[in-house]
# Entry
Amino acid sequence: MPLPRPLTTRPGSGAVVLGPATTLRADADCAGVARLLRETLSRSTGLPLPDSSPGDGARNGGGAVAGGGDIALAVDPALPAEGYHLRVRPDGVAITGGAPAGVFYGTQTLLQLLPPAVHRRARVAAGPWTVPAVEISDAPRFGWRGCMLDVARHFMPVAGVLRFVDLLAAHKLNVLHLHLTDDQGWRVQIRRYPRLTEVGAWRHESMVGSRQHERFDGRPHGGYYSQDDLREIVGYAAERFVTVVPEIDLPGHTQAAIAAYPELGNDPGEPVAVSTRWGISRRVLNVSDGTLDFVRNVLDEVLELFPSRHVGIGGDECDKSEWRASPAAQRRRRELGLRDEDELQSWFVRQLQRHLAARGRTLFGWDEVLEGGLPDPATVAAWRGPALAVAAARAGHDVVSCWDTSAYLDYRQSDRPDEPIPVGTVLTVADVRAFEPVPAELPAELRHRIVGAQCNLWTEHADSPRTVDYLAFPRLSAFAEAVWSAPGSAEGFDDRLREHLARLDAFGVEYRPPAGPLPWHRRPDAAGWPRQRADRDAELIRLTGNVLRPRRAEPGSDAGTTPPGPGRPAAPSSS
# Structure
């Protein structure tokens, strides 16, 4: 049973057995997809899968040709670009897609119809490599099906990121949102500003467990991606139809940058180190022309590395206390005719939006970018609840739904006391599968504004790929079905997931077992901070008041329409 669940599945009669005589033929447009399929099948089955000539075989639907157990790949523009049609008969396999991406997703379904050992990196079984006869027509519900991976709190080496890309692609997810910078580390090489990685990529130690417990490990942590590393990640992902969206978090979450270049901060005479603490730092960028030039220069280098239409600028959890206390920031606010610090942040974000728009890119930011108003074009990641998705859509922006109580994979997976470092509200596999990215209260005429959804994996408490596996899977598998499959298609999910776990085993994924954590998953040395849903919901109401309860601008003011932001209580971080 494939996962995500396809739109339509019609079982056939018989099966095809892949063997030494099986060939693989593809249209020129599908050559890259054919190469990846051949690599996957050959290393796990030992079958050579040579090319077949265009005239071989019999036509098997949608323009593809198959015969004698052959596999044929072709593009059929009549299908949706990411849609595909898969037909398996005793004489062969034919996959057609509306574009190479659709063909690729068809091959992922084909692999799921084979024994799980097909996902291993070397041959461990002799076969038979049997594919049951079936006809599947499929296409995704949303165009943005993503996962945010935080590599700033804990650095993940390139090999780990590439493996994560493979897992996203196998689940038909198509966006990897890389959170590259934060208070605790700067992970992207910027040639114009070498100290960002010389200083900003390393911290002296890290907190152990949740920040409320004030415990540290005394171990340095660091790492960064060279520009060639990032080109490799972007190129590798593109071959698998995954778009890498970079995020440089601004103007808050920037203590690592300020540690490298103190003149970026609001108090250059008080140097700071890269933050060793989780949570929200009060250190934020100043609003001078020089700092804006720095940010623009950084973004220009980022644009050279990432061809994605969207570029993330964060915009979240900016503690404005330094701006309130800074004579320079207050002078700039008055010069601009801005009423408060929310509008000062909005002005800052607008400068970045214009810079990106002038270069053909679209700003992507967390929903705090709505504070004080946001111009087009911009896409909003609504992480603080469905109400923020509605507010962004009503303001004329595209929305990626990702509220924490449904899509934060670092949140605890049960209320068991042995969950490792339990933080946030309980978020089970079933909860993630039940995620509905389109808020019920969103008017029908605005529903097109929900371009998709993503799950988010923050890594304060994930210091290794093993821990990332435990937090991500199998919840990411549930998320993949929630954003690919049609609404109301969850029936039978438990059975599909049970079968899918064998595939995760073959991939080498150390997922959380359905029965709960194993002894080596547990972290008795690191206490968490479990939250109750009612408490979190009440906190979100306080945090989002300056977006959801706007007031009119004062007469004669060209300022935005939101009041000063509330104080920032300790809250689960969006970034």
User: Anything to note?
Assistant: Residues 473 and 526 are 21 Å apart (CA to CA). The longest helix spans residues 289-305. The two ends are 36 Å apart (CA to CA). Residues 57-67, 553-575 have pLDDT under 50 and may be disordered.
